[in-house]
Amino acid sequence: MSSLKFNVKIMGLFLSALFTLDTSSSSLSEYEIDYKAQYNGLDVKATYTLKHEGDNKFVEYSSVKNILGEITEISEFKLINEDQIRSEKFKSNRTLIGNKRRESSSFDWEKKLAIYTKDNTTKSFGIEKKIYDPVSAKVQLRLDIKSNKNSYVYDVLTKGKIKRYKYEVLGNDLIETASGNLDTVKVKRIHEDNKKRQTVFWLARDWDFVLVKLNHRDKKETYSIEILRGFVSGNEIN
Length: 238
Fold this sequence. Notes:
By secondary structure, the protein is mainly beta. It contains two helices and 15 strands.
C-alpha cells in the first residue's frame, strides 16, 4: 500500500470513530467538542460541532486533521420524534498531500430512494426501512442508549454499500479525562467481519452522552481518542 493511500485510510478511520452526539430527553442539544488522538504514534486533532437549524433540522460538522491533510464531513438530518432521526444529506471531503476525494449521499424518503456519489460515480439504493449515513447512525445510537433500548443495530450507507453496524452496552464507568472525572456508559462495537478488531468507547452520561474517550486495536492498527474540551448547550463539560 502506498504511503498516500495508507494515510488516507488513517484519516478515514478517525472519522468513523470520532463521532459525537448530544441529546436531551426531548431534543438534541447543540455542542462543540475538541479531541486529541493518536494513530500508531501519529498526532491527530478533531473538532465536532452540532447546530440546530430550526424546524427540527440539525447539522453536524466535523474536521479531522494533521500535518498531512484534513477530512471534513457534514451530516444533515431531522429529529422526527424525541428518539428518532431521519437522514437527509451527507458530504465528505478529503484532502491529503494534494490528493482530493469527495463523497456524498442524499435521502429522498417520499420516493424511498438514496443516492450515493463518489467523484463521478453514482449509485442508487431503495430505502424501504431505516437507513443512516455514517454520522447520523451514531446520533441514533446515542438516542437509543439514552432511551435504554435493547437492540443497537443500524443499516448505514457508507462507501457505496449498505453495511450493518452493531453495538453492545457494557455498563457504567467513572473515568478521568482532561475535562475532569466523568460518569460514562461504556460501549463496544461488534466487528463480525473481523473478530480481532476491538473498539470500545465511553459516553458522558451527565453531558447528553457525548463521546469522551475511545480505544481501538486490531492486528495492524492502534488508535486512541480523548476529549480535550467541550461545550454542551453553552455549558463547559467538567
